[in-house]
Amino acid sequence: MKWVLTAAGFFIAMIAIFIGVVWFLFTREGPDTSHLTKLHSAQALELQDTGSAYNVVYEYSYGGETFYGSTSIQSRNMSVGSTFGICVDPDDPAQHAQTKTDCGPDGPRNPQEGLKEKPEL
Does residue 112 or residue 38 have the better pLDDT? Predict the structure, then answer.
């Protein structure tokens, strides 16, 4: 009888942990990207194939200024010169994030700071 109570307690604890993890995943908020409203494009300058993704050094120009950055992109269709979407803050174009959809509250997730000099891979 004691093992039944132990098993039931374990089962209830597992359900509570599962519900807690699901609740955490659906209620957490990411960084604020509401200021990244202008859809723009960046161009790949250098690529490093990691087997499952590419480490990419890229550049984009906005408002007469050129910015650089680096990211990892999981795509098999990347080459030097390829372009991909980014969202830019029109008031501070150094603030940007890669996007696969569009800009706005459901768009980019990882804001970055554009650099004035090209980074190394």
Answer: 38
